[in-house]
Amino acid sequence: MTENIGVLGKKSPQRTGVERVVNAPLPTVYGKFQAVGYLDHDRGDEQVALVHGDLDANGGENVLVRLHSECLTGDAFGSQHCECGDQLDAALRAVVAEGSGVVVYLRGHEGRGIGLLAKLRAMALQAEGLDTVEANLALGLPVDARDYGAAAGILRDLGVRSVRLMSNNPRKREALVQHGIEVNEQVPLLIPPCESNITYLRTKRERLDHHLPHLDAVAHLS
Ligand SMILES: [Zn+2]
């Protein structure tokens, strides 16, 4: 059995789930957030939730939430292979516009949970004509290996009881419900497609059940 190593290398063998470690003010171009840092003792990941406003204002009910799966290429490099960067941007803006809400940035979710290098290998295969599902399978990897247990634990710790979930992915909603967080509404996060990502988005819709009705309007893109 592996031993859990806690913050700053302190051993914490009994701990499970997520532990709140730090709460720091984070002014951003979108507005003011609190960056609440967590250690996930089950998986060893360091996680962060960006909290805006007062989540308790409505008793923790109906909180606007985004569970954003880490995507280095999309979030940091402006990749047009996927729409992750634009979704993160839209989610942060929406939470500020709402006056309160949470964006949980989920590390360990690269490439739907297969990791950065595997994701890049899958992207190389997609450049050769495979779709995003076929590419993962060709590498002998799961199509979606993401776990939302930590996300649910973080929301619980923040006092969130029910959410309006910004996502087009019904599986994300189901996963959160399975982990005991009530989802009152699924709020679409529709990013206008571009030539580079239209095939990827269509695959998400057709093979991964994402709700992307706006793609109907762009039949002209490749
Ligand atoms: Zn991405």
From TrEMBL:
GTP binds at residues 66-70, 87, 110-112, 132, 167, 172. Binds 1 zinc ion per subunit. Pfam families: GTP_cyclohydro2. GO terms for molecular function: GTP binding; GTP cyclohydrolase II activity; zinc ion binding. In the N-terminal section; belongs to the DHBP synthase family. Belongs to the GTP cyclohydrolase II family. The gene is ribA. Its cofactor is Zn(2+). Gene3D superfamilies: GTP cyclohydrolase II. Zn(2+) binds at residues 71, 82, 84. This is GTP cyclohydrolase-2. HAMAP family: RibA. It comes from the Bacteria. Residues 19-188 form the GTP cyclohydrolase II domain. It catalyses: GTP + 4 H2O = 2,5-diamino-6-hydroxy-4-(5-phosphoribosylamino)-pyrimidine + formate + 2 phosphate + 3 H(+). GO terms for biological process: riboflavin biosynthetic process. InterPro entries: GTP_cyclohydro_II, RibA, RibA-like_sf. Keywords: GTP-binding, Hydrolase, Metal-binding, Nucleotide-binding, Riboflavin biosynthesis, Zinc. Transmembrane segments: none annotated. It comes from Streptomyces echinoruber. Pathway: Cofactor biosynthesis; riboflavin biosynthesis; 5-amino-6-(D-ribitylamino)uracil from GTP: step 1/4. It is an enzyme of class 3 (hydrolase).
